Amino acid sequence: MSGQLEMFKEYIVKLKEIVGENRKNKILANSLYILVIGSNDITNTYFSTPLRKSYYDISSYADFLLNYGSSFLKDLHELGARRIGVFGIPPIGCLPSQRTLKGGEERQCVDYLNQAALLFNSKLAADLSSLGNKLPNSRLVYVDIYNLPLDVINNPQKYGFKIADKGCCGTGQIEVAELCRFACSSDSDYVFWDSFHLTEKAYRLLVHKILVQHLSSFF
Q: Which helix (H) or strand (E) holds 32?
């Protein structure tokens, strides 16, 4: 995240050169910023790295991540950002990769991963509410991306899907990105594109709900 902040600072310098100081400040204040933290940290770092669990329980690790995230938000605000949406964690226990690795022979959703996501999300929402009261003219919005994806996964036919426990590409059980090599014939039947990411159709459902529920909160 520190690297992203440095790139943002570089952008601000270039923006000022193009439009001037006053216009730059207005653009920064009226732009919408999206921050995504936690999913990889909890799924791939905390639960997959024994060293992390020797130093933290899941609650204290969530606090560690959120302290880092709060500092990042404060830095963004200091640089001129005002309208910031912060995504929570999706139901990571139902990712095809986690079903394969930790869901047993039947590849069930992994409850302790989903519970970790819910814990993180509740802490995140509370932190954003508190931080929003401290940062002048800020609009910090918690964006829930847990409940709708979970409902889609549990009730795929309700949303026009056929397969929710495997991805479209590769075997659908563990591969991501270039490891997929081949794709299914109809990705619109699948909730997941690979073992970690949703398909375009599933993302469209999620984005539509986010826009309907949260867009007005930024303005």
A: strand 32-36
